[in-house]
Amino acid sequence: xxxxxxxAPQPLPAAPVVLGLQPSALVDHVARVDWSLLxxxxxxxxxxxxxxxxxxxxxxxxxKTHILPSANYLSPLKTMAGGSVANTVRGLATCFxxxxxxxxxxxxxxxxxxFLDNMKYNDVSLSNLKMKKGPxxxxxxxxxxxxxxxxxxxxxxAVRLQADELSRENFRGSKWLVMRYGIFNLDIIHAAVKIAxxxxxxxxxxxASFEMVRNFREPLLTLLESGNVDLCFANxxxxxxxxxxxxxxxxEAALEYMGKHCQWAVxxxxxxxxxxxHQKEMVRVHAIGEAQASDATGAGDLFxxxxxxxxxxxxxxxxxxxxxxxxxxxxxxxxxGDVTPENRQWMYKQMQIKGLPLPDLxx
Length: 363
Hints:
Blueprint: E1 18-24, E2 26-32, H1 53-66, E3 77-82, H2 84-96, E4 100-107, H3 110-121, E5 124-132, E6 137-143, E7 149-154, H4 168-171, E8 176-180, H5 186-198, E9 202-206, H6 210-215, H7 217-225, E10 231-235, H8 236-242, H9 251-261, E11 264-268, E12 274-278, E13 281-285, H10 299-312, H11 317-331, H12 341-353
Parallel strand pairs: 1-4, 1-8, 2-6, 4-5, 8-9, 9-10, 10-11
Antiparallel strand pairs: 2-3, 6-7, 11-12, 12-13
Helix pairs in contact: 2-10, 10-11, 11-12
């Protein structure tokens, strides 16, 4: 066989197994701060409330005077590619060796380049990511001394992928679409779900934040009750908002509601583990006792990485939760929503102890 001619068509790269929809690429600024800083910032502690660019810049300037001293970090402020969806697909790629991609848009600024470099470095495909003229979204993640985090994202002025820019080619060949609920992205979420169903792609939805569920509950209920969401993740605060006002409203009632409309439903409970449902099966899985929380940023996102890996491997529901507990437990051991090489090794050790199948990249 002779060599291929110069300029001959090259085979297209294989479609990512998991595709993340993040209409606006986002950069996280993560800092461990004195909790008193939150007294000067609007919104409730522990949630995620959008702010204007002026407010974000003000918070970043205030962070410098509220930084908590720590010998564990070279820099008190860590900046990286962020966003729930980016955290999940990056975790799937780096921790589990699953081919992943992002569909969305980033700005032609310094933050946009940082997002591109970080995701490329972590083997996330960017073939479906458009660069547009304008700013990239940013988020300040404030972490207290015991690891609790409060988010203040700035999205309003950021470049964004529009619903009419999606095509079936973006989704063709993928197995899962990962999304995060957001009222500002509702049009593109509905468009993506429609195309995903046409292409036979499973849909996973994270409920974002208790404020988002509380303030925009009706559109969320409509989305879930459409039957087009196959897997739904919520933390206990989001779950409480989902069933607020209902009779016997608790996390199990929220799980029951989610499980009625989705094939798989998960409510994460922090240090108390999680509960999950698939059809008539319901399980409760304890958290990993050895996982000491340094920063809760990304805990739910990386739990989703592990759970999706379990589904892709065909594991039972309980084992999917156990893998999720290992991956979620790994990211909270250091600052930010990515898993360090040291914490990946910790995760693999926990998986071995629990008799869970290690990713092929470990061989």
